[in-house]
């Protein structure tokens, strides 16, 4: 069905059950709940496609599930390109390899989708100010969902079109807590990125922010009065392995703020902002851009992509992904983001 990848979201069945369901295209709700060990149908997410797996023969079929009265309607699906309109890609670790470049075959595959009239979107942890290297390379025609959904930008003008702004008092308290815990952090505001006490972090040492960002978009260690008239959208605490206990303390502190949400989204970043995500940002633009999630495919490698995976029909992760991405993706590739993993998957759509 799909070579070079293994599939999650599995419904395991005996040979008799498997054949009966494929013949009748239905299954009783109570039986369905029993198979999945669920208490009620509200626990089941009907948006993604699933794998019916025959435990006796190892056969399997991709299916779409839908409630139909007292039954679950089962519709076998194929990877047919005409059945999907929208393709959402994470950037770092998904499109980009470890050297921040794009494997030529992967770029060719994304351009192939664009040539077929598909909607192409980027949903990334990075800020718009860090993407200017890729504007001319990637054929995007949907808004950029940046900073894990905390900042949404028009794909042509790059103007901020979302308003997930952290209250100034809350932002000040969060920054003070990071200072108290000796954690460096990046502050994302509508005009750029500020690095605060990040010089000793591996992230800062590994990246040349002066090179990545234009001068007007980067400030290092300003006085906190700098933030007085700024719209702060996100705060990313950066940490190294020896600081994991400090991140646990920060996570507990963030829970004191009812309108904020914190999550470790990368191996060395803890993300704090308004309650949003790449998935919620995608949902917020769905109506205007006619995005049907049953006709949407997503690609990503980080924990922040896992929620997007639960919101789209199909999802794919490279094998060097973070745990939640691999757990929630429909398929996990046998290749890493340093290889032509996107091309291998995209060209399997008929």
From TrEMBL:
Q: Which residues form a coiled coil?
A: none
Gene3D superfamilies associated with the record:
3.30.1240.10, HAD superfamily/HAD-like
- Tell me the domain of life: Bacteria
Query: Recorded GO terms, molecular function?
Result: magnesium ion binding; phosphatase activity
**Entries under Pfam families matching the protein:** Hydrolase_3 (PF08282)
Q: What is its cofactor?
A: Mg(2+)
Q: What is this protein called?
A: HAD family hydrolase
Keywords for the protein's UniProt record, in alphabetical order: Hydrolase
- Source species, please? Mycoplasmopsis mucosicanis
**Is Methyltransferase found in the keyword set?**
no
State a GO cellular component annotated for this protein: cytosol
Q: Which InterPro entries match?
A: HAD-like_sf, HAD_sf
